[in-house]
TrEMBL record:
Residues 22-253 form the AB hydrolase-1 domain. Keywords: Hydrolase. It comes from Bradyrhizobium nanningense. The keyword Hydrolase applies. GO terms for molecular function: hydrolase activity. It holds the Pfam family Abhydrolase_1. The keyword Hydrolase applies. This is Alpha/beta hydrolase.
Length: 274
């Protein structure tokens, strides 16, 4: 399997398919690069080089005990792009991966980056604070950690079968294959990485990162997102970005890159070609 080893000795797995302008995908918690199958298959057949890695502690990357924070996530992404010498890259991040992309660009600069897109993404800040009254209470994320520690297999099954894909909504038609694939990806990773990752995605404030970014960024979000509520995420991120473009999807769930891949892929392609 293709891997790189980071400066702090962590082995990171990645996929690198095709040729052409590179699109780099950053996945959500607690998944892996496999969650981008629908996008990678679509874009590799349209003349793009598609790259995706498994975040440290996730998927096929090393299940290390430490470094599960946005600084390390961004540095690991930078290590992959440098190793592959990717230039004029298009970065796409879903959920926690959206935060990873934003932090990577702000922390490592734009010399390798052409554009970015963040989907159902956690920025600017998920957790409720005095400065972010619309966020979710810390107790919500504390409860996530408790449920994970008590038995993540059942916890992951409930997330996938319920709010992640909107399968708990009236009239929804749950896909058992999609649910099992989410559960499979989650269980491939390490419990410690996922436990710490909850703090990373919920408590990191990306406000200053967003302000630093000069490249165009497409902010895509469903207004029925039950994981990262719409009102306190996408519209605020789009305003903070110098070249932010907000695209709102009526009724789409958090996992819209999977449930509505045709729509998402077409809109990404149009943005990349602008």
């Amino acid at each position: 399997m293709p891997t790189i080893t980071t400066k702090d000795g962590v082995e990171i797995f990645y996929k690198d398919w095709g040729s052409g302008q590179p699109i780099v995908f950053s996945h959500g918690w607690p998944l892996s690069s496999d969650d981008w199958d629908a996008q990678m298959m679509y874009f590799v057949t349209r003349g793009y080089r598609v790259v995706a890695h498994d975040r440290r502690g996730h998927g096929r990357s090393a299940q290390v005990a430490d470094g599960h924070d946005m600084d390390h996530y961004a540095d690991d992404l930078a290590a992959v792009t440098a190793h592959l010498d990717l230039k004029n890259a298009l970065h796409v991040g879903h959920s926690t991966g959206g935060g990873e992309v934003v932090h990577y660009i702000a922390r490592h600069g734009e010399s390798r980056v052409a554009k970015a897109a963040i989907l159902s993404a956690v920025p600017p800040l998920m957790m409720q604070t005095a400065a972010n009254p619309g966020g979710l209470p810390k107790s919500v994320f504390d409860d996530f950690q408790k449920q994970l520690a008590a038995g993540r297999s059942a916890f992951y099954r409930d997330i996938a079968a319920g709010p992640f894909y909107g399968y708990n909504r009236a009239g929804a038609k749950p896909s058992e294959a999609v649910i099992q694939n989410w559960w499979r990806q989650g269980m491939m990773g390490g419990a410690k990485a996922h436990y710490d990752g909850i703090v990373a995605f919920s408590q990191t404030d990306f406000t200053e990162d967003l302000k630093k970014i000069n490249v165009p960024v497409l902010v895509m979000h469903g207004d029925d997102d039950q994981i990262v509520p719409y009102a306190d995420s996408a519209p605020l991120s789009a305003k903070l970005l110098k070249k932010g473009i907000l695209k709102t999807y009526k009724g789409f769930p958090h996992g819209m890159p999977t449930t509505h891949a045709d729509t998402i892929n077409a809109d990404l392609l149009a943005f990349f070609r602008e």
